[in-house]
Every structure is written in structure tokens, then in C-alpha cells.
Amino acid sequence: DDPTFKEDFVKFQDRILELDLKLAAILCQAFDDCHNLESVFKLISIVGTVLDRPKIREEFTGKYRQILYMIDEELSTCEDIYEMQMEHYRKDGHIFVDRSAPPVTACIRWVLQLTNRITTPIKQFQTLQHPVVQSEEGSSLVVRYNELIRKLKEFEKSIFDKWAVTVESTIEENLDKPLIVRKRNSSELVLNFSPDLFSILREVHYLRLMEIAAI
């Protein structure tokens, strides 16, 4: 047997290990430079199966724990936003929303925005090929996420149903009124289109744009 082959093979393995350690250091630094979950998951997606290399995985695995902390922080923020809005709703009968949209549409849009904000990182987290996903902490995050989504869906349904139940009677009541009337003490004709009907039409228009299934 040629002893030089074994020597060369050992040197080759040492060189590969050295390269893996350097790459692991670069990836860990890149992770530390990520300032939000979107950039973290983008980094992991770009790197791909490189993270499966044993030495790189060993060096990088601690970063998955940081992902847990980041998701926990984001989820807590979303939970706080929800609770703040619900407290305001119970107190004043409405939530803080975009005033450029009709009230029902604005509420549903807020629900969808908050849902998307937390759903994206949770779904990306669940695709990670790492034991942290199935850990107690990871499972707890998913449970909290599901509970928040349940509450948001219930709120969305209550807002929509509360509005929808009044639509038919409002339409019937106002369609019985003449569309054009004469001003009192004047011969001038004016449009008598109900503001309530206009409000309903505006809501329907925006809800259709959002592709709300019940519309």
C-alpha cells in the first residue's frame, strides 16, 4: 500500500474541515447581521443544504434557538396588538384602523394584515429541518399562534356578521323611498340617495376587491 495516499487523504479531510469551519463562521456572522425574521429565513433558504454539513450544522445549530426567541418576540407583539385593539373595541365600539376604507372593510383588512404578519414567520419556521421545530418551545409557539389566529377569525366573523345582518333591512327600507325629491318650499329637484345605501355599496365594493368569500 502507498502510505502517501492515506497522508493525502488526511490532509484533504483537514482542509475540508478548515473550509467548513470558515464557512460556518461566515454563516453565523451573516445570521447575526440579520435584523428580522424575513432576512433570517431568506438566509437559510439561500444557504440550503449547506447547513446539513455536519460541522456547519454543529456550529450553526445554536442560531435556531435564536430564531425561537425572535418568533416569540414577534408573536408576543402581535398578541399585544390584538389585546390592545380588543380593549379599545370593548370600550369604544371600534378599533384603530385605516380611515381611508369603510369601517367593516378596515376591520377585516386589519385582521388579515395581523394574520399575515405572524403567519409568514410561523409557516417558515415549520419548514425548518431542525429538531427545534418539534421542541417543547417550538410546539408552544405554534399553539399560541393557533390561538391568536382563532381569536382573529372570530373577531372578523363577528364584525362581518354584525354588519351583514343589517344589510337586507337597510336596503329594503331605503329602496322604498323615491330616488328624486323636491326641496321643501322650492321647485328644485334633488337626489334622495340614502347615505346608508351608499355606505353598503362602498363596503361591498371594497370587500369584493379583498375577495371576501361571503360577498
Q: How are the elements arranged and paired?
A:
Elements: H1 3-32, H2 37-47, H3 54-92, H4 103-126, H5 136-175, E1 180-182, E2 189-191, H6 195-209
Antiparallel strand pairs: 1-2
Strand content: under 5%
The count of strands amounts to: 2
N-to-C SSE string, H for helix and E for strand:
HHHHHEEH
What's the helical proportion of residues?
A: over 70%
Main beta sheet strand tally, sense and closure? 2 strands, antiparallel
Walkthrough of the structure:
With 215 residues, the protein is mainly alpha-helical. The protein is built from six helices and two strands. It has helices spanning 3-32, 37-47, 54-92, 103-126, 136-175, 195-209, and strands at residues 180-182, 189-191. A two-stranded antiparallel ribbon has the order 1-2. Strand 1 and strand 2 (189-191) form a beta hairpin. Helix 1 (3-32) runs parallel beside helix 3 and helix 3 runs antiparallel to helix 4. The chain is elongated and about 115 Å long.
